[in-house]
Design brief:
Helices cover about 70% and strands about 0% of the residues. The protein is an all-alpha fold and about 130 residues long. It is extended.
């Protein structure tokens, strides 16, 4: 199960409308609706609000464990749900590299990200 289904199930079991839940945990009802429809994913603060209000773990909310705290067999599939086939292939390729190659790739990605970030900063300054 994924967050959208779990969140809706928890809310309905508590007998709350999306608006009532939003009022109780300090979030917008439109955000709750988007999450329950699977149109967007909640951020850290939203997940934290749900864990505190419903007294459940973040792993449960994210579908990584069942209501008894046992890891679910579908955890890897849940984590990869939002990846494109190209992204999944990149992850699989990365996992097949040796430690030295992984380090090289990590350094290269870091360098590329810094380069992009630097270019964007220069554009803002001009």
């Amino acid at each position: 199960m994924n967050f959208s289904k779990i969140a809706k199930e928890l809310r309905e079991e508590a007998g709350l409308s999306q608006q009532k839940l939003a009022d109780k945990i300090g979030l917008s009802s439109s955000a709750i609706a988007r999450w329950e429809l699977g149109q967007s994913e909640p951020g850290f603060n939203a997940i934290l609000a749900y864990t505190k209000f419903f007294d459940v773990s973040a792993d449960y909310l994210l579908g990584l464990e069942d209501d008894f705290g046992a890891r679910t067999a579908t955890a890897p599939a849940v984590m990869g749900e939002n990846y494109s086939s190209e992204e999944r292939q990149l992850i699989e390729d990365y996992q097949n590299l040796n430690a030295r190659s992984k380090k090289y790739l990590q350094d290269t990605i870091k360098m590329l990200l810094e380069s992009v970030s630097g270019s964007e900063q220069k554009k803002k300054e001009n």
